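Possible regression after last week's pipeline update?

I re-ran a chain I had predicted before the update to compare outputs. Posting the input and the new output here so someone can diff against the archived version. Not blocking, just want to make sure nothing changed silently.
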Amino acid sequence: MAELKLPTEMVSLPSKGLLYPKESPLSSGKIEMKYMTAKEEDILTNQNYISKGIVIDKLLQSLIVSKINYNDLVVGDKNTIMVAARILGYGKDYSFSYYPDYSDSEEKLTIDLTQLKEKILQEKNILAKGKNEFNFKLPNTGNEITFKLLTHGDEQDIEKEILGLKKIDPKGNSEVTTRLRHMILSVNGDYDKKTIREFIEYGLLAKDSRAFREHFTSIAPGIDLKYSYTFDSGVEEDITIPINTNFFWPDVWV
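New output (post-update):
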């Protein structure tokens, strides 16, 4: 039986590959993806994947042709790949229900996913090409930190850690400090994990933490899931596009 050749597309990464070591295929700044088939539709309806919250990750892993480590993808690149997968699979028009601020009535919106804006990583912001590391001087204390952009693997580790802490203290909330521990790599040149942990818990002012998170958001590459929509009434709103399993299921049978 002749081997079937499925069509593929090269998708540009908003990181431009600058954060990945040169031996990684991701350093090219592009990733090869195939078009969705019935196999991927089986993945989307897999109740086990859905219940575990991993259905979209399983879908993307099936669609990516390039030989990469999926856990290495920085979150902004992964989100861009996800939108590209939706466009390749079902087209650029995405319809969903939405309650506008000006009304109590539900409206069905249709947006063009190709019009979403990408935020491209600026090479001047990284410390070295091929290294996921940035620096930032905290405005209130003057302490200098280096930090990284979170990867899919980091997000998985953070989620597991938070769940573990919840079991120890069900009423506690450690999400902010846990995320900061995974993001911050050094404090004033000290890469020791104990030093970083103590700094986050006792030395990081709330206003410096906020300034850092704002800076992180401003430089992180990715795709903007906020969309400016003008309703028939003439009212314009910035809406955040809902991303769930329905994102990959336009009005078809399931």
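Follow-up from reviewer: compared with the archived run. The helical segments are 38-44, 47-52, 55-63, 75-90, 152-168, 175-183, 193-203, 206-219. Marking as no regression found.
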